[in-house]
Amino acid sequence: MTLYVKNMVCIRCKMIVKSELEKIGLHKISVDIGEVKIKENISEIQREKLNIALNKSGFELVNQQNSKEIENIKNCVIDLVHYSNEKLKNFQDYISEKLKHDYTYMNTLFFEVLNITIENFLLKHRIERVKELLVYNKLNLSEIADQLGFGSESQLTFQFKEITGFSPSHFQEIRTLRSVVKEDL
């Protein structure tokens, strides 16, 4: 089960949330900024106990409706980037239309809970998709930039390097070197 927690911003926050989960007897799978995955379904009593404990430290459990909306936003972005054949041009309209909500409202909720904008979440997934396409596809960088809605090959290269620390060509070289090393083993 996934729970969303407002006001988490650092490693210390994650430690506090982990501790509160343990005190209530919930078993964590993972704790990230704004998002907690636990093994079991949480009862209303446990949810209330956890919320009270988290409130003492300045956190707040996001209500179930908002949790569903955040999950829907994440799934919409992932579907758009990884499984859709649509070219990414105006993602704000696409997400608003798909989820039947105002984009500003959704972005505010997403940021309040996960401390990242939908746009940045989308960009991270676009870069992951670029990596996949560089490794497993025969598309050149210009075609990838066009398919994923980057304004140009140079914009894709800039944002790729900004996020990964590598240029796409350097990434391809690393991939090639790794495959050569694997073959030698």
Cα(first) to Cα(last) distance is 40 Å
Number of helices: 9
Largest sheet: 4 strands, antiparallel
Shape: globular
Q: Compute the number of structural domains.
A: 2
The number of strands is: 4
**Any idea of the CATH topology of the largest domain?**
Arc Repressor Mutant, subunit A
Name given to the CATH homologous superfamily of the largest domain? Homeodomain-like
Mean pLDDT: 88
Class per helix and strand makeup = alpha+beta
Helix content: 55-70%
Radius of gyration: 20 Å
CATH top level label of the largest domain: Mainly Alpha
- SSE arrangement, N to C: EHEEHEHHHHHHH
Spans where pLDDT lies below 50 across 5 or more residues: none
CATH architecture of the largest domain, please? Orthogonal Bundle
Description:
The chain has 185 residues and is α+β, with helices and mostly antiparallel strands. It has two domains: 2-61, 2-Layer Sandwich (Alpha-Beta Plaits), CATH 3.30.70; 67-180, Homeodomain-like (Arc Repressor Mutant, subunit A), CATH 1.10.10.60. Helix content is 66%, strand content 9%. It contains nine helices and four strands; from the N terminus they run E-H-E-E-H-E-H-H-H-H-H-H-H. A four-stranded antiparallel beta sheet has the order 2-3-1-4. Helix 1 (11-24) crosses helix 2.
